[in-house]
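Appendix B, example 12.
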Amino acid sequence: MLGAAFSPAACPRLIVKVGSSLLVDADGSVRKAWLASLVEDIAARVGAGQQVAVVSSGAIALGARRLRLAHGGRANLEDAQAAAATGQIALSQVWAELLGAVGLTAAQMLVTIDDLEDRRRYLNASATLGRLLSLGVVPIINENDSVATAEIRFGDNDRLAARVAQAASAQGVILLSDVDGLFDGNPNTHPGAALIARVDQIDARIEAMADSASASGMGSGGMSSKIAAARIATGAGVALAIASGRVDHPLARLAETGRGTLFVADKVAPARKAWLAGGLTAKGEIRIDRGAVLALNGGKSLLAAGATSVTGNFARGDLVAIIGPDGKPVARGLSEYDAADAARLCGSRSEDHADILGYAPRSALVHRNQMALL
């Protein structure tokens, strides 16, 4: 049980993610009775003074049915985009109708990954979300799959929900799933697998428990995407819970039983640092040696002397991943140089930079004020 550590009702601002398999039946029709029960839960929260936003999957599944596309509309990128464009209208209509029936106003927000990865657009999205929620509106948010590409997209709404929670300054995220939470083994193949009620730190042991398969075959995520979402959310100081949506009134059930998995929020990081840490679309990588890893962990900037190689095609100010000698990410930050100049400076001392580049250099490859440790 989640226990007293996390209660959906205790979050002034809450993000609820609904997966395709919960919202849409295998034949492509909306599970309207179930969705109405969830909307009643949301209405109860709003009536109690809580602000709620929903990240809703289902557009591709709904559109595929209307267009009679094979493989649920996911046979190729063009089918997925066509299905999303068709299904998003139906999805928004269903949400607006059901929310309207309980006296709530729905708003639609379609976002691309760039809307939350570009700092200026992120702040604009954050302001819009904040205003809608302050007005008592329930935003229904989805990735704009009709224009997203295979290379530039969130890929699953679990991570989108975590990024939305960060943008909305929410205190909690609930991922409604087709399972009760994170188990220490696959419950479909290991009947004795135990539910993990609380995760204080996401480490290799926790990641090893994730199964990347989507149980329904409808969605694009599985437990591994939920772990990734939990890492983004908790790093931004937002608690995240995974709970079953395979019951009517799933939010009320979670509040009553506490059955699910809670990922405990980390200490709240400064907003810009949290945004950097949660970034998904680094334009390149800077590999560093062990000494540089120690320096970064000690609060230092990344100097060229500790860099061993550069990959990618990035410009000054782009987000880059900083990778340790073991191949694991150490930090993310905004590069002070473009990729070509950063590569020329690798391994060099600061006093030699002007001779190498032919102009007065900046003090670091990535300054500590523009960096977030992972």
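The mean pLDDT is 86. Residues 77-101 form the longest helix (25 residues).
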